[in-house]
Amino acid sequence: MEADLYAPFRNDLLRAGLLVDEGVDGLYGRSSTYESVASAIVRLTTDTGSEDHATSYHFPPVVPRRLLVQTDYLKSFPDLTGSVHTFKGDDRLHAELLALVDSGADWSPVLQPADVVMRPAACHPLYPLCTGRLPEAGRRFEVHGWCFRHEPSLDPARMQAFRMHEFVYVGDPDGAVAHRDRWLERGTAMLEGLGLDVEVVVANDPFFGRVGKVLAANQLDEALKLEFVTPICSADFPTAITSVNCHRDHFGLTFDIRSADGEVAHSSCFAVGVDRTTLALLHTHGLDPERWPQAVRNRLWP
Amino acid sequence: MEADLYAPFRNDLLRAGLLVDEGVDGLYGRSSTYESVASAIVRLTTDTGSEDHATSYHFPPVVPRRLLVQTDYLKSFPDLTGSVHTFKGDDRLHAELLALVDSGADWSPVLQPADVVMRPAACHPLYPLCTGRLPEAGRRFEVHGWCFRHEPSLDPARMQAFRMHEFVYVGDPDGAVAHRDRWLERGTAMLEGLGLDVEVVVANDPFFGRVGKVLAANQLDEALKLEFVTPICSADFPTAITSVNCHRDHFGLTFDIRSADGEVAHSSCFAVGVDRTTLALLHTHGLDPERWPQAVRNRLWP
User: ipTM score here?
Assistant: First the structure.
């Protein structure tokens, strides 16, 4: 069933050489044509947010291990996490490791956790930088780069490693809501300007397990996170390519961030799924960007 | 001793806001100024190799787990590897995981290996794509992106997560040597054009353990890999910022790659350390790229 739904577009992408199968579900190399679209989306997102005068940071694809606990990610999405382990032994343990490898056994028990884990969302490394008292206007950040979620799938839009581009606000509650609402407008204009048929829906994140069912129900009730969905592999099951999310005081409490008046800071963000938006464009306008509508090309490559 | 050597430049970079300390040795956020230099180096490297008419691929920061074994990386550099693990349990195991986290214990034994590991070198995912018979002229690739090596250090030039930009040849033995030698020339011209004081030395990779001592001695004897070194933190201990490496039939044998005449293929590569070259420029010309020599600026931002 899953394979049937995703196979046609996935095979189109592979045959056209836009994606290269690396032999693990959800892991692909990208061609230079694919990358030219992805880079253009990053540039367009930066331009769309230029009025924010945001501070731009680039973080690596791994983050400090403690962030996974502090952000509650390990509570809510344990099955999506990636914990990085390494070898810290001597010659003898190394011989054991290689013997396990040779016998085809699981060699991971010989390893020990490193100080880093895969970055689950682009904005996570920002919040520890904000600990303390914020200026009156709050702070605005732009951040983009590689994220990881362990969810092996045949859906080309559900990659294990993908790029996310975010504009983040940290400050007072009104500012956080205003940031989200402004980006709801800007995001709509940006995606519609690319000829994408988007609909805004309340997000429904895949919280883990029994407790997760309650968290998911709360998320729907409170409608703090909204997603822009568009058909990629199926008109019946459109894919979220971009989102706006009001975190309330979640990060403010965890990282002891205070707004100028001394209250616990609120935050919100706008997040573009760079790879998903690339795929949405390839689905909507065809596999050859040279033949896309001129208006779309002009926005991507002005 | 280590701290003394690296502290002055590291503190300069942090104070200037070019790097942001993430609280783990060798893990940094980068400012937009730093990134503008890194991006310029990537563009210049692409331009320098334009005559290669290479096929360009972009791979994620994680690669299939089996690559770590197939490339012998786990044999030679086990202590540098990053193996990605995730949670595959049910509600009950999740409760155990969270209890471990709450008690401050190591929660990693609850995890299981994922199908991916951190990418140790930019070119590794290329070789499985070459299995089979190559065309007469061999194949040329350009590849760049995030790599990971677990080597926590106070040396800002020894980052755990960093970018590498490579030009790779896969074909016959003569072609592999010619590729290396051509890039030895091009690399020298490119780095000297940036006003960097580079010296070419035989590489001395940190092979692991007792067996590693033999491998390291062989590497020195055979002089197959050469590095461009330049002072970053110390004139006495210059840093390798770029290298050329002849792999002989290492990848050809492992991935069953044959040149046009049916022999086991040879390969070689030119690899630019994007972050190390950025740091070398900041060390050589000062922390403000706006004030760098005009000739250097013209090459980076033509």
Answer: 0.96
pLDDT of A84-126, one tens digit each? 999 999 999 999 999 999 999 999 999 999 999 999 999 999 9
Query: A216-220, A288-292, B153-157, B184-188 — which is least confidently predicted?
Result: A216-220
Minimal C-alpha gap between B24 and chain A (Å): 6
Over residues B157-181, the pLDDT tens digits come to 999 999 999 999 999 999 999 999 9
Q: How far is CA A204 from the centre of its chain?
A: 15
CB contact under 8 A, B83 and A129: no
Q: From chain A, pick out residues whose CB is under 8 angstroms from the CB of B78.
A: 86-87, 89, 94, 97
- Of the candidates A32, A58, A107, which has its C-beta nearest B29's C-beta? A58
Nearest CA in chain B to A127: B22
Judge whether B206 is closer than 8 Å to chain A, CB to CB.
no
- pLDDT for residue B296 is more than 80: yes
Q: Which residue on chain A is closest to B23 by alpha carbon?
A: A64
Interface contact B87-A79, CB threshold 8 A: yes
pLDDT at A139 exceeding the cut of 90:
yes
What structural domains and CATH numbers belong to chain A? 2-82+120-300 (3.30.930.10), 85-114 (no CATH)
Q: Which of B31, B115, B146 sits opposite A24 (nearest CB)?
A: B115
Residue A184 has pLDDT above 60, yes or no: yes
Could A87 and B79 be called an inter-chain contact, meaning their C-beta atoms sit closer than 8 Å? Answer: yes
Q: Does B72 touch chain A (CB under 8 A)?
A: no
- Note whether B146 and B124 are within 8 A (CB): no
Q: Which residue of A has its CA nearest to B207?
A: A91
pLDDT over 90 for what percent of chain A? 91
A101 to chain B: which residues are within 8 Å by CB? 69, 74
Judged by CB atoms closer than 8 Å, whether chains meet at A148 and B85 is answered as no
pTM higher than 0.80:
yes
Query: Which of the four pLDDT bands, split at 50, 70 and 90, describes residue A1?
Result: very low
For residue B18, list chain A residues with Cβ-Cβ distance below 8 A.
none
Cβ neighbour number for residue A255 with a 10 Å cutoff: 20
Task: Quickly state the pLDDT bin for B2 (edges 50, 70, 90).
Answer: low
What proportion of chain B, given as a percentage, has pLDDT over 70?
99
B242 burial via Cβ count (<10 Å: 0-12, 13-18, 19+): buried
- Residue of B22, B128, B208 with shortest CB distance to A64: B22
Q: Given the DSSP bridges, would you call strands B257-258 and B139-148 parallel, antiparallel or unpaired?
A: unpaired
